[in-house]
Amino acid sequence: MSDIASSSFVRQDLLTERPAPVKTTGFVGLMRTRLFNSPTNILLTIVGALLLWFTIVPSVRFLLVDAVWSGKDRTACLTENAGFAVGACWPYIQAKLPQLIYGFYPEAERWRVDLTFVLAVVLLVPLLVPRLPAKGLNASLFFVAYPIVAFFLLHGGGIKGFGLSWTAGLLELFDESISGAGQALLSLSKTSAAGPLLWLVGSLIVLVGTAIHWLILPLIWLRDQIQGAGQSLWADFAVTAAVVSLIAFGLGGGLRTGWRALGSSIAAFVAIAAVIKLMGLDRGGLPVVTTNLWGGLLVTLVVSVTGIVTSLPIGIALALGRRSTIPLIRIFSIAFIEFWRGVPLITVLFFATYMLPLFLPGNFTVDGLVRALIGIALFTGAYQAENVRGGLAAIPRGQGEAAAALGLSWWKTTSLIVLPQALRHVIPNLVNSFISLFKDTSLVSIVALFDLLGSLRASFSDPKWSTPSTAFTGFAFAGIIYFIFCFGMSRYSLFVEHRLNAHRRN
């Protein structure tokens, strides 16, 4: 015991203090560990600071410090009148702001554009917040009901028929096209060397057209009877509602489980009737504002939102078609994608605007803005198809095999298992295409559609605001608007990506 006690050691003096650990958090830690931790990072930090100094400081001086904030004409933004080197001329933006937002839309009707924007925000914001309920109803209102209401708000006009008349008109146009093609072949057979073959094919086509005519004749007769009576719109509406509701009732399970589908259909038609009555569509509706008067931010948002919403379903369908085992569908999808990806967007816009009317029947016309929208949707859909196909290729084959082992059909496997995972993988690519499309809307100005930049360039011709800084101010304002929308889409995509990839977080 004494040996243990004698061999023990008890320190009598305190140890010298060791240096404090290097701080690795906060601003000082960031400077030490990221910006100045090596000679290369020190050099890059200095170069970056100089770049920011020579770009941000002059921009702030131009936009805020040396800017002119009030005035009635160009004299307020001249250096000799202001007494200093004038930067941005914000009175010019204040004077031209209605033109930059509405284009040449009539001033008395601009409340319709404002109401359209408000409805879009009211329906879109709850759809973007994950925790809010009723996403199905909200999506139906935004993607189905809102485009129709927005069309009648922006364009105006009323409706003279409903589902029955529209169906009969489309079928009648289809029948006329088939019969016309058959008659053209019969006429060509009289002068062609392959006359008997052309005559046989033309006769068969005419026979098909005649059969279609007799099949749709009762529907056309019913349409003519309804249009000949008073209140033709509401009679057509009632017949359409009854037919659609009965179909929904039958497809929903009939007397056993079809009552819910029947109630949903009736509720939807009641809401449609309320909108028709509220907007006066049965009495001519609002005054018509043709699309050649639209412009500014209105056209930019219409083109970009329509292209974004329509291109994604087109891309999904083409991506699935390209992976199909049916040769006809696969070849068509590949040809469609490669064709639209092989031509520039400017060519697509020119073709849709100036060439497409040449291929349409003489009594059938399409609005210029609608033609541009169709071209942009098809063009962007081809690019989205490749993005979606990349996501589909990243899904292991075992996912589909497991679903097949559980007895799921191809449609359920694709829509519930494979496609959601594929879209989650390609969120950055999809949003990147959306941002690119939003900026590419400026190309519509080459086909006489005045978007935000087109209206901005048109405003430069006003001599009342001709100053050395007018053009720089206008482009800076347009750049800020584009940045707000594009940066908002980018940040929201990061939020969605982070939320959907919760299983990958550490």
Task: Using brief descriptors, characterize the structure shown.
1% strand, mainly alpha, two-stranded parallel ribbon, 506 residues
SSE layout:
Blueprint: H1 2-7, H2 26-35, H3 39-65, H4 79-82, H5 90-102, H6 110-128, H7 135-154, H8 163-189, H9 195-228, H10 232-251, H11 254-257, H12 259-279, E1 295-296, H13 297-322, H14 327-341, H15 345-355, H16 368-393, H17 397-405, H18 410-425, H19 427-440, E2 450-451, H20 452-459, H21 470-500
Parallel strand pairs: 1-2
Count, helices: 21
Spatial sequence of strands, sheet with the most strands: 1-2
Strand content: under 5%
CA distance, first residue to last residue = 54 Å
Rg result: 32 Å
Poorly predicted regions: none
Order of helices and strands: HHHHHHHHHHHHEHHHHHHHEHH
Biggest beta sheet attributes: 2 strands, parallel
The strand count comes to: 2
Helix/strand-derived class? mainly alpha
| Average pLDDT level | 85
**Given the C-alpha coordinates, what overall shape results?**
globular
Task: Give a written overview of the molecule.
The chain has 21 helices and 2 strands. The protein has helices at 2-7, 26-35, 39-65, 79-82, 90-102, 110-128, 135-154, 163-189, 195-228, 232-251, 254-257, 259-279, 297-322, 327-341, 345-355, 368-393, 397-405, 410-425, 427-440, 452-459, 470-500; strands at residues 295-296, 450-451. It has a two-stranded parallel ribbon. Helices cover 71% and strands 1% of the residues. Helix 5 (90-102) packs across helix 20, helix 6 packs antiparallel against helix 7 (135-154) and helix 13 (297-322) packs antiparallel against helix 14 (327-341). With 506 residues, it is an all-alpha fold.
